[in-house]
Amino acid sequence: MAASPDLQDVKTTVLMSELLRRLKCASKPEKRVILIGPPGCGKGTQSPIMKEEYCLCHLATGDMLRAAVAAKTPLGIKAKEAMDKGELVSDELVVGIIDEAIKKPSCEKGFILDGFPRTVVQAKKLDAMLEKQGVKVDKVLNFEIADSVLEERITGRWIHPASGRSYHTKFAPPKVPGIDDVTGEVLVQRKDDNANVLRSRLAAFHKQTKPVIDHYKQKGVVNTLHAEKSAKAVTEEIKEALG
């Protein structure tokens, strides 16, 4: 077992900042939220805002899988074995990794789950795992947006690889076309950020994930957001949905 860090070596400003954060979070109600929406719908923009506002942990399943594999946890080792064979990681493994994550102190007030469930089968397995803990999904935020709007968003997106800063030729252009504002380095476009790949991903989303929304609508926990609006307007819709 790893030794606890010596608090004497932690800067006072860091300790005070964490203490103030915990005091602020103490009065926050618990919330367990699922984000559902196609690529480019704005989930990545809204997640950090929600995490800060409601003191939730953000669980992106792709990142969690990579972290579990890197940490060589028992579930991470099983996931790596599947990936090394070119197989999909089983739903049970992913739910197990989520189960482990939400028991951490950072998830004490609840979580934002992004990237899972993608199918009704996965949703039912997630529900069953939460039920064993005596909790349930409180809210599903459905980022609804027209495919045509997404195509314009995605195909115009450019990235600064080193920092992750993103730009858009129409909505958030760099000062100099193709150049990062901060470093002056060349921007790149992700291989996936093209119309053909997007259409394929959207077809898969509509086929698999729309039924997940219907599953949670039956439970009365779905709020549909107008994701084509500005980021600020969507934030306000989320605040209204989560209370």
TrEMBL record:
<dbReference type="InterPro" id="IPR033690">
    <property type="entry name" value="Adenylat_kinase_CS"/>
</dbReference>
<dbReference type="InterPro" id="IPR000850">
    <property type="entry name" value="Adenylat/UMP-CMP_kin"/>
</dbReference>
<dbReference type="Pfam" id="PF05191">
    <property type="entry name" value="ADK_lid"/>
</dbReference>
<protein>
    <recommendedName>
        <fullName>adenylate kinase</fullName>
        <ecNumber>2.7.4.3</ecNumber>
    </recommendedName>
</protein>
<dbReference type="GO" id="GO:0005524">
    <property type="term" value="F:ATP binding"/>
</dbReference>
<dbReference type="InterPro" id="IPR007862">
    <property type="entry name" value="Adenylate_kinase_lid-dom"/>
</dbReference>
<dbReference type="InterPro" id="IPR006259">
    <property type="entry name" value="Adenyl_kin_sub"/>
</dbReference>
<feature type="domain" description="Adenylate kinase active site lid">
    <location>
        <begin position="157"/>
        <end position="192"/>
    </location>
</feature>
<keyword id="KW-0418">Kinase</keyword>
<comment type="function">
    <text>Catalyzes the reversible transfer of the terminal phosphate group between ATP and AMP. Plays an important role in cellular energy homeostasis and in adenine nucleotide metabolism.</text>
</comment>
<keyword id="KW-0150">Chloroplast</keyword>
<keyword id="KW-0808">Transferase</keyword>
<dbReference type="GO" id="GO:0004017">
    <property type="term" value="F:AMP kinase activity"/>
</dbReference>
<comment type="similarity">
    <text>Belongs to the adenylate kinase family.</text>
</comment>
<dbReference type="Pfam" id="PF00406">
    <property type="entry name" value="ADK"/>
</dbReference>
<dbReference type="InterPro" id="IPR027417">
    <property type="entry name" value="P-loop_NTPase"/>
</dbReference>
<keyword id="KW-0547">Nucleotide-binding</keyword>
<keyword id="KW-0934">Plastid</keyword>
